[in-house]
């Protein structure tokens, strides 16, 4: 009698195979990977975690500065400028901590910030003259509220660039002219973020604890897993849906689609290619799986409406 042979090899699983474990993906951050969005080098999160326990960061600037010095090269440009400001101030005021030093600079930086913001708000208000009546009225209301916040030395709630742009988008969303809409938003995007202007960093951080200020110099550079398809849109929690992005870019994207992230960061497609090139070079050394890079290309292309088309032709050479 013949034995019945059961075939098990051809069973197909519906779940696609995960190209890389979380641990393997995190390990890539040991190799100076540039952020997918801004292109700046990222810091391994474990190194940042060690800094969280450093008591010296709460002390005087002269104690904290040597701890942060090794990371100066990976600081984002504004954070590096603030760090250099601390270095020169601490030579003059060796006993003061980061908070005390920022407090000394706050008033002058706040004025500088309001000056930059008010020029931009004036430019936006100008559009009341050419917008349809209802839209112009809504814009006026938003600008009055906004001026109340920025010209008040002790505002109830600090000005939020993100919320302002969100409200502005809502007001102009029904305008027929796409060009006009883009023009107004382009002006609003010039509003400084704490990542673009030292004055915005000083104002945002002057009330924080010295150790928090110290960590904020480094935190934007920490490498994170960005959900390409946001979690709230049912994006998966594995490497098929993860890209390596610095903490700053990850936090500033929120749950917006990649197309909006590219509007805010026009160099993102270029920077994504730089990251892909780095990953390809790591894959040649057996440090990154090819499947991860192929999947990243596919997902980015889909989610960005083909605005990010990675060239991975060197992967198989
Ligand atoms: Zn970034």
Protein model, in words:
The chain is mostly helical and 317 residues long. Among the domains are: 22-42 and 223-316, no CATH class; 118-198. The chain has 14 helices and two strands; from the N terminus they run H-H-H-H-H-H-H-H-H-H-E-E-H-H-H-H. A two-stranded antiparallel ribbon has the order 1-2. Helix 5 (98-126) packs antiparallel against helix 6, helix 5 crosses helix 9 and helix 6 packs antiparallel against helix 7. 29% of the residues are buried. The structure holds zinc ion. Zinc ion binds at residues 35, 37-38, 40, 245-246, 248-249.
As laid out across the biggest beta sheet, the strand order is: 1-2
Which structural class should the secondary elements be placed in?
mainly alpha
Which regions have little confidence, pLDDT < 50, spanning 5+ residues? 1-13
- What is the number of strand segments? 2
Bound molecules: zinc ion
- Write down the Rg: 24 Å
What is the first-to-last residue Cα distance? 53 Å
Q: Give the topology string: H per helix, E per strand.
A: HHHHHHHHHHEEHHHH
Shape: flat
Largest sheet: 2 strands, antiparallel
Q: Number of DSSP helices?
A: 14
Estimate the strand proportion. Answer: under 5%
Helicity level: 40-55%
Q: What is the residue-averaged pLDDT?
A: 91
Q: How would you summarize the topology of this molecule?
A:
Elements: H1 22-27, H2 45-52, H3 61-68, H4 77-92, H5 98-126, H6 133-150, H7 161-172, H8 178-188, H9 198-205, H10 210-218, E1 223-227, E2 242-246, H11 247-253, H12 258-264, H13 268-284, H14 290-303
Bound molecules: zinc ion (ZN).
